[in-house]
Amino acid sequence: MTISTLVDTNVLIDILGPAEMDARRWSLAALKQTLADGPVVFSAIVWAELSKPSLGEDALARALAWLRPLCEDLPFSAAYPAGSAHNLYRMRGGRRERTLPDFLIGAHALVAGHRLLTRDPARYRSYFPGLNILSPETYPLGDD
User: Fold this and answer.
1) What CATH number does the domain containing 69 carry?
2) What is the pLDDT of residues 65-95, one digit of tens each?
3) CA–CA distances in Å: residue 74 to residues 46, 117, 135, 136
4) pTM for this prediction
């Protein structure tokens, strides 16, 4: 059985830039394992969050080419669940900054049937209870 995994931005940042060693180690091992399980998926939202003036798009694509990612646009059917989850978050007193992209990523994974690989599972777990989330707590890995 092939299992696809949408990768959250924080996992990719761990392997691309300065990160705490434990986070980098887990993220790299988790990416290798999910790649062995099936396709790794990047969303357009994650790709946008990775853009940095110091690293051009071609260099970014080369750095991540070993993952052979499937690059997906945001499914239209993910927009409403993302907005609904974001509205619920705001009604519960959540702060506005940097939240909508997370909800778009979570809804994309959910409606497309992907697992989500992230180091920040709490928000996704709270607002997308049906989403299969791989995180350090739920997906422990030994040293590479």
Assistant:
1) 3.40.50.1010
2) 999 999 999 888 888 888 888 888 878 887 7
3) 10, 17, 22, 26
4) 0.87
